[in-house]
Amino acid sequence: xxxxxxxxxxxxxxxxxxxxxxxxxxxxxxxxxxxxxxxxxxxxxxxxxxxxxxxxxxxxxxxxxxxxxxxxxxxxxxxxxxxxxxxxxxxxxxxxxxxxxxxxxxxxxxxxxxxxxxxxxxxxxxxxxxxxxxxxxxxxxxxxxxxxxxxxxxxxxxxxxxxxxxxxxxxxxxxxxxxxxxxxxxxxxxxxxxxxxxxxxxxxxxxxxxxxxxxxxxxxxxxxxxxxxxxxxxxxxxxxxxxxxxxxxxxxxxxxxxxxxxxxxxxxxxxxxxxxxxxxxxxxxxxxxxxxxxxxxxxxxxxxxxxxxxxxxxxxxxxxxxxxxxxxxxxxxxxxxxxxxxxxxxxxxxxxxxxxxxxxxxxxxxxxxxxxxxxxxxxxxxxxxxxxxxxxxxxxxxxxxxxxxxxxxxxxxxxxxxxxxx
Amino acid sequence: xxxxxxxxxxxxxxxxxxxxxxxxxxxxxxxxxxxxxxxxxxxxxxxxxxxxxxxxxxxxxxxxxxxxxxxxxxxxxxxxxxxxxxxxxxxxxxxxxxxxxxxxxxxxxxxxxxxxxxxxxxxxxxxxxxxxxxxxxxxxxxxxxxxxxxxxxxxxxxxxxxxxxxxxxxxxxxxxxxxxxxxxxxxxxxxxxxxxxxxxxxxxxxxxxxxxxxxxxxxxxxxxxxxxxxxxxxxxxxxxxxxxxxxxxxxxxxxxxxxxxxxxxxxxxxxxxxxxxxxxxxxxxxxxxxxxxxxxxxxxxxxxxxxxxxxxxxxxxxxxxxxxxxxxxxxxxxxxxxxxxxxxxxxxxxxxxxxxxxxxxxxxxxxxxxxxxxxxxxxx
Lengths: 422, 380
Known about the structure:
The structure holds 2 protein chains of 2 kinds. Chain A has helices spanning 79-97, 135-138, 185-198, 243-249, 276-280, 284-291, 328-332, 375-385; strands spanning 10-14, 22-26, 28-30, 36-38, 66-74, 128-133, 176-182, 203-214, 265-274, 341-342, 345-351, 358-368, 392-402. Chain A is an alpha+beta fold. In chain A, the strands form 3 sheets. In chain A, strands 5, 6, 7, 8, 9, 10, 11, 12 and 13 form a 9-stranded antiparallel beta sheet that branches. In chain A, strands 1-2 form a two-stranded antiparallel ribbon. In chain A, strands 3-4 form a two-stranded antiparallel sheet. In chain A, helix 1 (79-97) packs antiparallel against helix 3. Chain B is 43% helix and 15% strand. Chain B is built from 11 helices and 14 strands. Chain B has helices spanning 139-171, 175-191, 193-196, 202-207, 221-229, 238-254, 262-279, 292-308, 311-317, 319-336, 353-370; strands spanning 14-15, 19-20, 23-24, 38-44, 47-49, 52-55, 61-67, 73-77, 84-86, 91-96, 102-107, 116-121, 340-341, 344-345. Chains A and B meet through strand 2, strand 3 and helix 1 of A and strand 1, strand 2, strand 9, strand 10 and helix 11 of B.
């Protein structure tokens, strides 16, 4: 509806919906001394991903290289203010995903610039922003702040405690989440920073996690990445191109309740600390036994190639299962019958100041149609038996209902926040 | 510690060609006459200009909303246009056909602060358009500047008086009294810190922390603080107490001749809040005495005082903004209240991370809104 300038470009844009406007806009910096630095035209829109559609971006989008995730707590008690926040965020996301700065025209010298500016000169870099609603949006400390309690999806459960959990409250939960992914970490950071700024007065950041190096491929063209344990991770992950599998396992459909979640998906986020120093002292054969795959090739034990089918019944010479009955691959893989779309990232927050060990691991993100039937049974089984548990600790947990996508002019969450009489 | 200012101007050359349903809108047009059927509504923080517009009923009219504020606005003419999000500088054009009646024109985000106008099919019976807030240096702004200068002088006088009482207690060897007076002695300083930061090297002399300067040059409040709380003595401080009185006196004499611009006063007010929410909140300033809340509250009070001097100017030109920010300052008081004791504050080490997070984010909320005030003030 409104016209924008690309971060360093000359762009001809056309408005829509019958009230649109066409504009020719060019951008430039004027330094305070009146010197103008010209900004060269950018015509490259090849890294722009669509914001509008049936589903939110950033779910089946081919996983980008970097993540900035943030969870927010709302500080307002007014549901129309929450709606306003979602309008503002959606509008800003649409702008940023096009690789354009926030705000238009000239900033008066005594106004703070509308855009924080660090991403000027960068392309869209396949930025996606995905917005979700935590259980505490619907009810918090027994209070129904926004009159939404009746709309809480049954699938948006409070994740039950799992064996071995060491959850830090200040890194867990949240009323709203923002998942920003991009091939450029600065672009992802810029998105979260500006959304936090726009939310000032309505929402405060509760916790935030940076992720680097995607640890899952969500698209057929992508090579399987390695996690920080040195193993290929997510070989048999679902792929976004398999639309019938997406419909079956990832998207909330018209047979599901509530209707406002149609086209949406449930996100579970877990910060999984890896005890890398201990892991690195484990000998190769045992590492492979724990995972169930060969470290270098990524092939299942007993096979030669990464994508060879996992044979869970094969026995070794002594008649023991070739893949240990509690190997990670056996308990977590698709062969278990449960399918989720994993979209995690490696993380490091530097060093654990108490132990001097690396504070690093996997920031696990997974989308699904119903966590009660997917994440919870899967993780319950893993938490009890996975050989990997010796080397990992879950330090945070959060769940969010990410509503469906929108058309231009709409906003994320419009189905939950229909307009009230004015 | 110092008033940190940079100027960063982001300017864009904007050529606009607007086309709408075959009609050309007039960018920048301000006419509200019915005959032209072209209307521009400027959207400021947080009001419409004009507040009310009229157009011939049953004929198409091109309405342009331009966001001239620093806030994001969500504007709508109820029943005629879609609700539309406008980023700062953003513009949207609608072609609409009103009936012979009045429509509510409002901002979804600030309607509760009175950001409401009317779009009238027919003659505009309402009051004339609101004047642009930034055009004239009004007398109320001049009086705001002198009111703030009076406040600054008042605080620097208080600083001198309270510092003298603090030093007297030390000279008498009254440790308990000296400790009790330390928090309040500094308050006057913390309320006007951005001003003091502009006066030569007074800020490092008065307020440096251990390690900011070579030990031999380290003087001021925190040097004495360390003696009282860590070395646990009032003895041997002559050198520091004398210097402290000299420096505070220099400050008190130095504030009067200062000239201040309205925008600098607001800059300083924002700076004080930044100082409170980033520095004071860490508990690093009063690391020996844990009296950080005295400083933090004084920063907030000084900021609010600098804002309040613009009350009559803003009440006239932008009442919604004034009300909004005052209400947000009130919120800070609400979150600080549990930590107040009889005439003072609890020991800072008693605060949990949750408490600090809450205080900092409440202060940040005010600072964000306050940073948008300067654009509406006369620039001289």
